[in-house]
Amino acid sequence: MTSTQRYLEMADILEAELAHVPVGAQVPSEHVLADRFHVSRPAARAALQELERRLLVRRVQGVGTFRRGRVEYVISAHVPPSFSETVRQAGAEPGTRLVSCGARRAVEQERDRLGLATGAAVWAIERVFSVNGEVAAYATSVLPRRPLLNLDRELGDGVSLHKVLGRRYGLTVVRSRYRISLDVPPPGIADHLTGGSRGPAWLAESVNRAAGGPYVEYSRTYLRPDVLDVTFEIEEETH
């Protein structure tokens, strides 16, 4: 048996065992696995790296390796376009950290998405989202400034944008158009999302409107696939 076959066989055995291990529990170290399977430390390390590629464990440098459990994250026209609400519906605890919020002129892409005139002012909001304490997403939201006066005073860490839009401005926000693709976050976003590592992430783009009203938000959200099990629901046309 080759070394590659051996570490893959180890990974298959460990994957079956992990099905019975609670999320967050620490899994055996390289040293313990090397002794158990009578292999070298590099072979044991390769088996753990394979489990990490399969999104079954997460490795914390200097601490250990832990059982990973991804949270279901549904993107659909029937699900509110709120990260916090979507995560809560999946039975997990969301968190929000406000990176920045400021007013500026909308660029062409934003004007096209929101139906704004040249020179229109918008709020640009950057946030980091977490799930059960682990960083899970980075979102950029752009909203028309005119109907949302003093929005910057309403936001902060732990504050849901969509709850503010409902409570303060009387808006119920729904998805109008959305798309998802696999992309590599730019360096500035990767620093927040993964500590600088630039692996692929889901990029969800959404244009949201007030129920029965105009467009109120254009968002671009990078979602970590090792934290979130993303489901993209395509609506069936009815006749």
Automatic annotation (TrEMBL):
Residues 4-70 form the HTH gntR-type domain. Pfam families: GntR (PF00392), UTRA (PF07702). InterPro entries: Bact_HTH_transcr_reg, Chorismate_lyase_/UTRA_dom_sf, Tscrpt_reg_HTH_GntR, UTRA, WH-like_DNA-bd_sf, WH_DNA-bd_sf. It comes from the Bacteria. One of its GO terms (biological process) is negative regulation of DNA-templated transcription. SUPFAM superfamilies: Chorismate lyase-like (SSF64288), Winged helix' DNA-binding domain (SSF46785). This is DNA-binding transcriptional regulator, GntR family. It comes from Nonomuraea jiangxiensis.
